Amino acid sequence: MAVDEWLLSVARRPVLRVYAWEGTWGSIGYFGSLESAKRSLPGLDWVRRWTGGGTVDHRDDWTYTLVVPAGHGWCGLRGAESYQVIHAALVDALQGEGIDACLAGPDGQTGSALCFQNPVGHDVVDAAGVKLAGAGQRRTRAGLLHQGSVAARLDSVKSSGRARGLANRLADGWSEVRCEPDEALIEALVSARYGSSAWTDGRRGASAVTPVAAG
Q1: CA angle 99, 102, 107 (to 5 degrees)
Q2: Half-sphere exposure of 212 (CA within 13 A, CB side)
Q3: What is the pLDDT of residues 68-103, one digit of tens each?
Q4: In angstroms, rounded to a whole number, what is the distance separating the alpha carbons of residues 113 and 89?
Q5: Among 140, 149, 117, which residue's Cα sits nearest to residue 130?
Q6: Quick check: is 115 catalytic?
Q7: Would 85 be classed as within a structural domain?
Q8: What distance in Å separates the CA atoms of residue 64 and residue 54, rounded to the nearest whole number?
Q9: Domains in the chain: how many in total?
Q10: Which residues in 68-92 are b (16+ Cβ under 10 Å) and which e?
Q11: Which residue from 125, 120, 151 is spatially nearest to 136, judged by alpha carbons?
Q12: Looking at 75, 102, 115, 179, which residue is catalytic?
């Protein structure tokens, strides 16, 4: 979570980040209830995202982040529009793997706080309407942060293949780069936000920091 926020502060072009979780982690959206998440999925360690969305079990998912800096065309789209554009690319990538995926209608909603029991507008679902992927977004002056999850974990080879497939559908050209976050800023964000019990519990009065773009 801290690396994603750092990327939003420093990125000068769109960045797709794919990563795996170590341990038994779940995440809740910015406005989500920690107590509700604990009741639904007991025994997990929890982190609160900076983005919205529901409760996600990261023990068995494929997680990605898309950072779009201010000035890029997608930042001019409304929330639902950018969500649809990104998920349309994801649907195409999943179909390329032979997965029966499509976009949910704009008004889908079950009312469940659990992300994968709650297809909302423009989520990714299968032919039976079962949710395959969802995401949360946050917009700041720095740009757009889109944090997404696809059901079912992949091994490293298949994960890399999916990442490349998604990148091909999001951009005409791209390159792989090594991500080397500023350790001091990451530690500050973890201490003040993502590693703070006050933040995780939803007590917004907790201290918070915003990393400053380098250079």
Answers
A1: 150
A2: 1
A3: 999 998 888 888 899 999 999 999 999 999 999 999
A4: 25
A5: 117
A6: yes
A7: yes
A8: 16
A9: 1
A10: bbeeeebeebeeeebbbebbbbbbe
A11: 120
A12: 115
